[in-house]
User: What shape does this take?
Amino acid sequence: MKYATQTLLERIRREGRVEGEVIKVDRFLNHMVDPQLIDLLAADIATHFTEKAIEKVLTAETSGIMLAQAVAGMLGVSFVYAKKKRPLTMGQHYAAASYSFTKEESTTLYVAKEVLRPKERVLFIDDFFAKGSTLKAIEEIIDQAEAMLVGSAVIINKSQRRDIYAIVTLDDLRS
Assistant: This one.
């Protein structure tokens, strides 16, 4: 078992909770954040994608930002986060709808055209993958930009999809 996986599983068992498909990690990942843990997880992801010639890391506001920044730094590229509200300063943009099952709300994600260019090789990063609504919106934005999604990575994959690189899966948590 990878060190990042083992470390995260230990933290979840010690400081988190798993109730069915609900994974509570507020004390170290998505409310209060342990920066050393984020760096460990980011190093695992960056190592996995080193050979993919990533040019940009993309995430959605808010929970994926810390991980995306750390992965981008390790890959030596910029990262962009899709905003949930379009600021007045954002001119031309790409947009796609997303539904958060955790927050039980729909939102639109926005990315300025000036920060995501055609043909850029993009890595999508997020904290969780559950039903895929955020990734679907990100894929739509990447398509609008005529960029290329070359990989997706999350901290915890709660789905059965195995084309998304994950530190931990729901199966890992159940074993």
In short: The chain has a mean pLDDT of 94. The chain has one domain: 3-174. The radius of gyration is 16 Å.
